[in-house]
Design brief:
Blueprint lengths: L1 H45 L4 H14 L2 H10 L7 H21 L1 H11 L4 H5 L5 H6 L8 H17 L6 H32 L26 H10 L7 H8 L11 H21 L7
Helix pairs in contact: 2-8, 4-8, 4-9, 5-9, 9-11, 9-12
């Protein structure tokens, strides 16, 4: 009897190990596929002779976006303890995170128009590869990366003006904040795509959680309406991936380790968005003619 139990336990362990190995192999294949798709779209974008001008155009838009805020603080000074560099630091972290998601998962943003309405999603279903990897790597616009570069430069500049000496732990927290923000904004794109299976088009109100969401960081946390604070903390963790890391690194909060919540919060939001995506795929009916 004991031998039978041992054999059953050994069989179950071996089966679990095989399942784990299979999952790891599938993830590796999906990452390789995603890399090749991004590389292909990147090289395709370089064939367009005007790509340096598109980068310059995007860079000018990003740089001039907060210029009204800068002029306001230059005219009226700080708002309590909130200086222009404090607000720009939080804003830059959010913008960098959004830029990463917009650059490397642009396919989900275009999904409702480029794949659902045209019926091109049917072709993806015929391929024995991850749908998320195929959609995420279907588009890559090189000029979108200008938002990431400008956000990183602004982050470094603001930290320097605030006279913050970065430790290795602070750098790790900042990287985790960018990754958490990447997962958060990618999750918003994925939710949009999941809903598009039923609406058969993009939803304009979803931009409240993308282009509009990082504009909320211009408002100091102490003066932000409670409804917005709860919305962008507990529903979409935009403040968790921007304000908490900045507050921890600069010493604005009593609990330093709150800044490390950015990455877990971003991953949790992305996993929730994946459920919406899976639900949409399960109920998808072809829209092509």
């Amino acid at each position: 009897m004991e031998n039978i139990q041992r054999n059953c336990i050994s069989y179950k362990v071996n089966k679990d190990n095989l399942n784990l190995i299979s999952i790891v192999r599938n993830i590796k294949k999906d990452l390789v596929l995603y890399y090749h798709l991004i590389q292909m779209n990147f090289l395709t974008g370089l064939q367009y002779k005007g790509w340096p001008l598109t980068i310059l155009q995007t860079l000018l838009v990003v740089i001039t976006d907060p210029i009204g805020l800068i002029f306001m603080f230059a005219r009226f000074g700080s708002i309590g303890e909130w200086s222009v560099y404090r607000i720009l630091l939080i804003y830059a972290i959010a913008v960098t995170s959004f830029g990463l998601a917009e650059s490397f998962c642009r396919g989900f943003d275009y999904f409702p128009w480029k794949m659902i309405r045209s019926g091109d999603f049917d072709r993806l279903l015929l391929r024995p590869r991850s749908l998320m990897a195929q959609v995420a790597g279907s588009y890559f616009h090189i000029h979108r990366f200008a938002r990431v570069v400008s956000g990183l430069v602004t982050t470094i500049y603001c930290l320097r003006e605030l006279k913050v000496s970065l430790r290795w732990l602070d750098i790790c927290m900042l990287v985790m904040a960018f990754l958490g923000g990447f997962f958060t904004y990618t999750g918003v794109f994925v939710i949009t795509s999941g809903i598009a299976f039923f609406s058969i088009k993009g939803l304009d109100w979803i931009y409240i959680f993308t282009n509009v969401s990082y504009q909320v960081t211009r408002c100091p946390m102490d003066y932000m309406p409670a409804a917005l604070k709860y919305l962008f903390t507990f529903f979409m963790p935009m403040l968790v991936i921007s304000y908490y890391p900045a507050a921890s690194i600069c010493g604005w909060t009593d609990s330093y380790y709150k800044g490390f919540l950015a990455l877990p919060a971003g991953i949790a939001f992305f996993l929730m968005a994946s459920l919406v995506w899976r639900f949409g795929v399960r109920h998808y009916k072809s829209t092509g003619s």
